Amino acid sequence: MQASLARNSKGGEFDTRHIVVRTAQLRAEKAKLLGYANWAAYQLEDQTAHDVPTVNKLLADLAPPAVANAKREAADMQKIVDQEKGGFQIAACDWDFYSEKVRKAKYAFDESQLRPYYELNHVIIDGVFYAAGKLYGLTFKERHDLPVYQPDVRVFDVYDRDGKPLAIFIGDYYARPSKQGGAWMNAYVQQSDLFGTKPVVANHLNIPKPPPGEPTLLTQDEVRTAFHEFGHALHGMFSNVKYPRFSGTSVPRDFVEYPSQVNEMWARWPDVLKNYAKHYKTGEPMPQALLDKVEAAEKFNQGFKTTEYLSASLLDQAWHQLNPNEIPKDAAAFEADSLRKAGVNFPPVPPRYRIFYFSHAFAHGYSAGYYSYIWSEVLDADTVEWIKEHGGLKRENGDRFRAMLLSRGGSADALGLFKNFVGRDPYIEPLLKRRGLDRAPGADDTDIGSSPH
Asked: How far apart are alpha carbons 54 and 415 in whole angstroms?
């Protein structure tokens, strides 16, 4: 682990410290030339968060409860070490091994117990499509007359609440050697009033294909992914804009995951779950006791996961909020000082990426933007709470979310769309609650907005 954490910083041809310093210098100078205080200010201007103070406040509000929870998790592991007379203090290299021991002790269940209840066709037709029908009034009719690029690909006509054609949806669910990994949504034809085009959107997953005659049984994560990617598909299908430039998911990076993350809530919504989570042999619904264990385990190890992510996000901002004359010569010392100042310098939980191999921030276009994953989740968790408080799975909520947000694409200010839907600035508490971080000291006085209740 020490070798891994120190990679690209030990001299030789693969040492990137000078590249980090030089890149930060050039970005800071470019921002000044363009009239911005620093590179982060330049990058954030057309994102949902808009400005440096907003991002700094988000990260600063999350750090104390995340670190407090990580320390509690470390203490739980330390008890096991001490019981086993290990004679050492938990370090970063021990975390995975001992956190698994804690997980088994606290949430004793085997995830393979879930899979018989998650058969692919049931998940899609009786889960994903069923929720979209209840929420938005959509109906789906499978077509077999259109040519497809691969025999497993499924094609559906999507009909709107008034029965008129809305879109074509393509489901490409199985993994194959020629397919890239991961899961994603593609808009092969974007909606546009200018050109009079209706959307053709696809979800691409990578579910292992079973042997002939065997059912396709999904993991918990694959079910969540199916609902998530369909959230992107809805964003594309509901688009109602003039110009293709603003169609569907053509929105800021720190906003694009938000609607799809909201759609994940229906995977666990009781009415939806009981409609699709049935044993593929017996048709029996998933036992509540099993579901309770899954939900309890969701919050496990979130102190670690949130802290390692925040540490990387804070480093990204620290480097990109510098003036040209503030660029450090010693990258490692600057990193250590930045983590200390932010209060996330807890050695058993190092940053997910140290700056020497942080390709998101220095190679892949996420400079000053790594925060965007958790920003989207703040909006998502807050929206989910709003929907729950207003009756959950009902057409009024779906129609409101569609009209005020999904249909607008990138044609309006992203944060304004969120505010129009919930009627206020975002609150951070729902995310803290979701991740089990709401018990931490200092968590109650957050206000990015902070909820008044």
From this structure: 12
**Phi (first) and psi of residue 433, to 5 degrees:** -65, -45
The whole-angstrom separation of Cα 55 and Cα 366 is 14
Interatomic CA distance for residues 94 and 348, integer angstroms:
8
Tell if the pTM clears 0.85, that is, is over it: yes
pLDDT at 446 over 50: no
Neighbours of 167 (CB within 10 A): 23
Catalytic residue among 73, 119, 222, 229: 229
Structure tokens at 23: 């890149």
> Cα separations (Å) of 212 from 69, 209, 215, 337, 436?
46, 9, 8, 57, 42
- Cα(263)–Cα(117) distance, integer angstroms: 20
Find, among 42, 16, 17, the residue nearest to 27 by Cα.
Answer: 42
DSSP SS3 for 453: coil
Classify the C-alpha dihedral 238-187-431-274 as positive or negative: positive
How far apart CA 26 and CA 12 sit, in angstroms, is 23
Residue pair 50/415 in contact (Cβ under 8 Å)? The answer is yes
Domains and CATH numbers, the chain: 2-35+51-92+300-359 (no CATH), 108-279+371-447 (1.10.1370.40)
Q: Please, is 453 exposed, middle or buried when counting C-beta atoms within 10 Å of its C-beta (0-12, 13-18, 19+)?
A: exposed
Q: Strands (DSSP E) along 61-148, which ranges?
A: 139-143
Give 380-419 pLDDT, tens digit per residue. Answer: 999 999 999 999 999 999 999 999 999 999 999 999 999 9
Separation of alpha carbons 176 and 181, rounded Å: 9
Q: Which residues are registered as beta bridge partners of 207?
A: 174
Question: Does the active-site annotation cover 229?
Answer: yes
Nearest to 239 by CA among 408, 375, 83, 36: 408
The pairs formed by 316-319 with CB atoms below 8 angstroms and a separation of 24 or more are: 316/358, 316/360, 316/361, 316/366, 316/367, 316/368, 316/369, 316/370, 316/371, 317/40, 317/52, 317/55, 317/56, 317/59, 317/368, 317/371, 318/342, 319/20, 319/24, 319/355, 319/361
Q: Report pLDDT digits (tens) over 254-298.
A: 999 999 999 999 999 999 999 999 999 999 999 988 888 888 888
- CA dist 85 and 88 (Å) reads 9
- Alpha carbons 258 and 379: distance in angstroms, whole number: 6
